[in-house]
Structure prediction request, 183 residues.
Amino acid sequence: MRELSLNILDISQNSISAKASVVEVSVEENSADNTMTVKIIDDGCGMSEEMLARVNDPFCTTRTTRKVGMGIPLFKMAAEMTGGSFDISSVVGEGTQVTAVFKTDSIDFTPLGDIDSTVITLITMNTHIDFLYRLIVDGREFVLDTKQLKEILGGVPLNEPEVVMWMKEYLKEQTQIIRGGVV
Ligand SMILES: Nc1ncnc2c1ncn2[C@@H]1O[C@H](COP(=O)(O)OP(=O)(O)OP(=O)(O)O)[C@@H](O)[C@H]1O
Ligand SMILES: [Mg+2]
Prediction:
């Protein structure tokens, strides 16, 4: 895939299919050891141990529209290609946690890409689900929490154009701040 944010979108779609009510996406960059750790955590239906053991296999899918599930194998490959690591843990009825560590100095590292658009897409297409997006760069952190946003907005839906514009600006501005740029 051209950019990791598309893999992240894919993995988050799994959480949505698993009927999660809260999905947490966190991206943590660390320049001291050239790593980027991506976590996608959900409180969806989870997977049995048997399913979990097979999930890295592209021919393991509960899809009915086609026989191959590529989301997890592709994300795993993208991480391991860089010399990083991949882990998935899950408990039936509790949820699933996917962790991928990338070595950002590897020539096989795929850039994160437009993660803001991925986050906005997830939020606006699934307004019934709560998303928590966390970006951490060398210990500086910001969070976009739709649960909080919904409280502030009262009944205004998250896919209202003005709200979408605000979220876009907020993500851009906060990202610039923690990346050390001037706003
Ligand atoms: N977060 C999750 N919670 C519960 N089950 C999951 C989760 N993620 C993956 N699975 C299970 O693992 C299977 C494989 O996932 P994977 O993303 O690799 O392929 P897919 O979703 O089936 O197809 P694709 O991603 O190519 O559309 C899924 O069909 C689903 O049954
Ligand atoms: Mg999938």
